[in-house]
Write a structure and sequence with these properties.
The chain has 136 residues and is of the alpha+beta class. The protein contains 2 helices and 7 strands, in the order ββββαβββα. Strands 1, 2, 3, 4, 5, 6 and 7 form a 7-stranded mixed beta sheet that branches. The longest helix is centred in the middle third of the chain and has 13 residues. The radius of gyration is 14 Å and the shape is globular.
Length: 136
């Protein structure tokens, strides 16, 4: 596959409950075995808000509401496959039990002060940026 000439738009969800962040363990490249925030590709024909809600339903089988756009991350090296720009949304998890899809082997809520060692993409930076906003 030829690398795209323009960045791919992604969406990620930052779900925080009781000082813990929801992460899932990837079971496919890139970053197999690493913990990441749930998210994925934006599809043509949908808004980025619709995309993040869809991705949470597909990956975790949960409904979410958007609290706010948290940030935009665009380091050209954030994804080894191709250049991506991700919009990170602060989300509130609705009722329902989390169930993972084929892309992940497990999910877990990690205390913000005790993150796993192996974190994929730039998701550690995103979480650290969130922690900094809480202390202001």
């Amino acid at each position: 596959m030829e690398k795209p000439k323009s960045p791919i738009v992604m969406v990620d969800g930052l779900i925080i409950e009781e000082g813990r962040v929801l992460m899932q363990k990837r079971n496919h490249p890139p970053f197999v075995g690493c913990w990441v925030l749930p998210g994925g590709h934006h599809d043509c024909g949908e808004t980025v808000e619709q995309a993040v809600i869809r991705e949470m339903k597909e990956e975790l089988d949960i409904l979410v509401t958007i609290e706010k756009l948290f940030g935009v991350y665009s380091d050209p090296k954030r994804d080894p496959r191709y250049c991506t720009v991700t919009l990170v949304f602060l989300l509130k998890k609705g009722k329902g039990k989390i169930k993972i899809d084929r892309e992940s082997s497990e999910f877990r809520f990690f205390p913000l002060e005790k993150l796993p060692r192996k974190i994929g993409f730039d998701h550690k930076q995103i979480i650290n940026d969130f922690k900094r906003t809480r202390t202001k």
